[in-house]
Write a sequence for this structure.
């Protein structure tokens, strides 16, 4: 009896606790396997190690239980008691070591949001019970809440309403997304790099998004511990047109505390929100602190620099002269104006709509970015002498950080090795000018000179070309042979880079259309061109008025009534403009009239608006439906307009084309990286019509981008003759250039100098690559002396006869000039070829030659100047368009 009692106590107080502890040890090792795995081998092998440990220890427990107790009943009771106690202990441990995180998702302007997707990854110490990777997806309920239980030692990363990479319907497309990163105080104890002490910390990363791809601004801000200490993560989502910002920034900035860890939270949040631009002095003054607080400020300035760069870069997309077709996912002018209004309100701190125009709002926003950049760089100056981290901020600014180059000589003279290393590393991101890195070339330090050579890597070809000229000038001023050699080294690398860029540019596809474009300047008023007709009328506007350009003259469209508000819809081939005029004198009941400007009549004739709506013209996407337009690699060219061009039908056996046989040769223009683009449908006998391109229009200009003063930034309309109207930036050739630098409205005309391939055959071909580049040559005819046997002349053999061909539907004039000699001729419509003009026979004769013919217009070549052959210029509207 006594022996049985002792044996039962032995089982009760030894075997059961022993086997229970072994079971707990097995489970603990299984949970901790990822940590141990992370320390000893690859993390992805940790689960295998965990399952193996469970198997080995489970076998050991069973072995001990069934080997030593002699009675089977007691073996079973011991096993049952051990499993029960193990399960109970695990439940208690799980509850004690886990916590519930609740996400409350709200509209910044209203109440809770239902059915918002929250994709959660929780990880730390490798612990995750929701799946092999620790991932789960929640959806908010009627109160906008969703909860999850995680271990206290975990970090929890929640992607709220993040639709990137997911199919339609995954999230709510009406709202922004938010990445809420939660780390508990206990988790921070295990991580040495988290500076938030005993606070639960929540960091929100989100975008300030606007409608249809307008500028997006990255934001990052800590949530105040007063709101995050209860295990609740507050998430605020914003509609793209809302004026209200998430309250994270205000909550943490306005909270007061003497806790150093909380102060670090504030500093890390001070530069990550758009409200930061109204707290710059507070942020920059904290940069003078040393230690962890300065590190927190540098982190915050890094976020501020990213905002400056994103806003500055995105402002170009707000310009109303960016001609983009009206498409569902692209912004309209109204949306751009709404965006500038919202940004102005946020940056100015005002709650009322701004009194400024759209253009002035953009200027104000850019001014704020420029001011913030200068303040940031000046405040960063002392830290640039000490810390490499300061240059991470400059690298985030990229080319906006060029003003910081004024401190570089001091950094390399007085700064630490760490600071100099950081300064060199970001040179390729800042892309300084040649003058700004000249001190490095003169440093006689091989590594610094090599870094200075890197300015060519991210420079454009135009910038690199300018830098080369400056480097050559600086080298010429040097007398030190070592410095001269250093300049030559940098110049050689820059030249090699420019040559590679030009070679790559030359490898780009060139147009199969014979004529290249001549640029006709239409002035600086019509910066938003709308349409070009086949007859040559151009309709467009500036910020406040509408204009018509024709034959070198720009006419402003006036309202009938003083103060009348105009909108212009279209212009026809006769130059008649139609639109509407609103009479604001009636107050809320103002009248809207149909306005018609006949050619030469200004102001318009007003009539009652039609009661029935006219049938809307198909948009560009409807017109392009079924057409396969190729695209350039890794970029998108957005179609803007197309024409109904035709061309002679190609014939078999090299027969000349007949003007009576025409086929479609449609052209499509669009906008993309680098400016305007062109697609072409080559004439073909095949029933299958294909397009070639897109070709960058800038490489179709005389001289191409390398020397052309014009940079076509966007295109708006193309007529059936192939003439294009758009916007271009002009770079002056020197201080005496009469043409103003900056944005101009331009007409791109596919003018060609041609000759008849077979006399009388009616087939014309361009002379020497259209006569529009440096290789073009116009033959100069010289009459043979009287009595010369078999003497030829242009009327008999066609040699020396040329024509000028251009698009148009009504007769136009063009002037030929050589030296002081000039002649004006008419280009008339070509029979059977719609929208094509051609001059009569033209011959350029030698200086002093007496040749004359009734059906040939001659221009006498100017005398040679210093052995240089005479040139022929073509002029329209008083300006040279081809030389």
């Amino acid at each position: 009896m006594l022996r049985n009692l002792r044996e039962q106590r032995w089982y009760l107080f030894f075997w059961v606790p022993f086997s229970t502890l072994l079971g707990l040890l097995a489970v603990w090792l299984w949970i901790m396997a990822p940590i141990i795995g992370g320390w000893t081998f690859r993390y992805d092998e940790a689960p295998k190690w965990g399952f193996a440990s469970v198997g080995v220890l489970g076998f050991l427990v069973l072995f001990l239980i069934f080997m030593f107790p002699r009675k089977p009943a007691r073996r079973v009771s011991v096993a049952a008691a051990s499993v029960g106690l193990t399960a109970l202990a695990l439940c208690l441990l799980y509850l004690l070591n886990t916590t519930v995180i609740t996400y409350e998702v709200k509209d910044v302007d209203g109440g809770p949001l239902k059915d918002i997707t929250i994709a959660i990854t929780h990880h730390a110490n490798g612990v995750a019970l929701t799946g092999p990777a620790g991932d789960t997806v929640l959806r908010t309920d009627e109160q906008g809440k969703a909860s999850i239980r995680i271990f206290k030692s975990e970090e929890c990363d929640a992607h709220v309403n993040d639709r990137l990479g997911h199919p339609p319907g995954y999230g709510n497309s009406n709202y922004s997304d938010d990445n809420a990163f939660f780390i508990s105080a206990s988790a921070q104890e295990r991580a040495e790099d988290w500076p938030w002490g005993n606070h639960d910390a929540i960091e929100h990363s989100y975008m300030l998004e606007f409608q249809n791809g307008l500028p997006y601004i990255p934001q990052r801000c800590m949530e105040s511990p007063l709101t995050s200490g209860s295990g609740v993560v507050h998430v605020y989502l914003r509609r793209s047109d809302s004026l209200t910002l998430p309250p994270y920034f205000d909550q943490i900035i306005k909270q007061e505390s003497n806790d150093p860890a909380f102060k670090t939270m504030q500093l890390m949040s001070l530069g990550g929100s758009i409200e930061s631009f109204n707290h710059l002095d507070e942020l920059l003054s904290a940069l003078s602190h040393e230690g962890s607080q300065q590190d927190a400020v540098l982190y915050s300035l890094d976020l501020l620099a990213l905002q400056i760069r994103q806003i500055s870069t995105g402002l170009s997309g707000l310009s109303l002269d960016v001609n983009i077709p009206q498409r569902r996912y692209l912004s309209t002018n109204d949306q751009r104006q709404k965006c500038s209004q919202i940004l102005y309100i946020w940056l100015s701190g005002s709650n009322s709509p701004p009194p400024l125009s759209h253009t002035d709002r953009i200027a104000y926003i850019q001014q704020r970015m420029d001011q913030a950049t200068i303040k940031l760089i000046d405040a960063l100056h002392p830290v640039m002498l000490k810390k490499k981290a300061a240059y991470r901020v400059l690298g985030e600014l990229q080319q906006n950080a060029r003003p910081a180059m004024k401190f570089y000589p001091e950094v390399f003279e007085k700064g630490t090795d760490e600071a100099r290393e950081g300064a060199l590393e970001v040179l390729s991101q800042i892309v300084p000018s040649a003058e700004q890195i000249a001190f490095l070339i003169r440093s006689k330090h091989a590594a610094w000179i090599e870094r200075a050579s890197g300015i060519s890597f991210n420079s454009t070809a135009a910038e690199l070309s300018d830098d080369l000229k400056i480097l050559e000038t600086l080298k010429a001023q040097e007398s030190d042979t070592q410095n001269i050699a250093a300049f030559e080294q940098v110049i050689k690398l820059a030249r090699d880079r420019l040559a590679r860029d030009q070679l790559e540019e030359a490898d780009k596809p060139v147009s199969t259309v014979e004529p290249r474009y001549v640029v006709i300047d239409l002035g600086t008023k019509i910066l938003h061109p709308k349409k070009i007709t086949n007859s040559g009328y151009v309709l467009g506007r500036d910020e406040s008025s509408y204009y018509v350009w024709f034959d070198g003259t720009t006419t402003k469209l006036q309202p009938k009534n003083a103060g009348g508000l105009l909108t212009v819809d279209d212009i026809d081939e006769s130059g008649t403009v139609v639109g509407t005029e609103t009479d604001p004198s009636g107050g809320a009941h103002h009248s809207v009239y149909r306005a018609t400007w006949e050619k030469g009549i200004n102001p318009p004739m007003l009539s009652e608006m039609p009661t029935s709506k006219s049938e809307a013209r198909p948009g560009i996407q409807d017109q392009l439906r079924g057409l396969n337009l190729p695209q350039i690699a890794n970029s998108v060219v957005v179609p803007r307009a197309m024409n109904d061009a035709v061309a002679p039908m190609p014939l078999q056996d090299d027969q000349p084309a007949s003007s009576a046989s025409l086929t479609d040769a449609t052209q499509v223009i669009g906008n993309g990286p680098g400016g305007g683009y062109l697609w072409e449908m080559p004439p073909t006998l095949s029933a299958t019509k294909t397009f070639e391109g897109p070709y960058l229009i800038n490489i179709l200009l005389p001289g191409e981008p390398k020397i052309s003063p014009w940079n076509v930034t966007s295109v708006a309309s193309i007529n059936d003759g192939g003439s294009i109207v758009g916007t271009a930036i002009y770079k002056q050739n020197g201080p005496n250039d009469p043409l103003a630098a900056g944005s101009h409205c331009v007409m791109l005309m596919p003018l060609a100098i041609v000759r008849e391939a077979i006399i009388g055959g009616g087939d014309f071909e361009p002379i020497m690559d259209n006569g529009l580049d440096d290789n073009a040559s116009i033959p100069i005819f010289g009459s043979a002396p009287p009595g010369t046997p078999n003497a030829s002349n242009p009327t008999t053999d066609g040699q020396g006869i040329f024509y000028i061909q251009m698009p148009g539907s009504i007769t136009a004039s063009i002037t030929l000039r050589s030296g002081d000699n000039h002649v004006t001729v008419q280009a008339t419509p070509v029979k059977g070829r719609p929208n094509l003009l051609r001059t009569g026979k033209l011959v350029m004769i030698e200086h002093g030659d007496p040749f004359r013919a009734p059906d040939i217009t001659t221009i006498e070549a100017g005398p040679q100047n210093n052995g240089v052959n005479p040139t022929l210029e073509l002029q329209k509207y008083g300006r040279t368009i081809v030389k």
